[in-house]
Amino acid sequence: MRTYTIKGQDHIVYDLESEVPKDIVVNPDWKKSRVGDWVRADDDAIIQVLKRKKIGKTATIQTCIGTYSVE
Fold first, then answer.
1. What are the angstrom distances between the C-alpha of 34 and each of 1, 8, 18, 48, 62?
2. pLDDT tens for residues 5-53?
3. Cα–Cα distance for residue pair 45/26, rounded to 1 Å
4. 16: left (phi > 0), else alpha (psi -120 to 50), else beta?
């Protein structure tokens, strides 16, 4: 488990499935996730979607470890 601080708020990245609390539901399709959803990253870590926005014409999601295109 890792913690990143963004604008004074801590955000957790769960590296192992066993670390994820039982009340967290992981959205199986990160491209259709909404703000607040937990998703699985390419490295199998579980991260939370912090923002959903457009950069130019490209739809993106923002997490504590980066911003990713959903198109």
1. 22, 22, 24, 9, 10
2. 999 999 999 999 999 999 999 998 999 999 999 999 888 999 999 999 9
3. 11
4. beta
Q: Are 14 and 46 in contact (CB under 8 A)?
A: yes
The model carries a pTM of 0.89
pLDDT computed for residue 71 by the predictor = 84
- The confidence score (pLDDT) of residue 43 equals 87
Angle at the Cα of 47 (from 44 to 51), degrees rounded to 5? 135
The full DSSP string for 16-40 is SGGGS-TTPPEES-GGG--TT-EEE
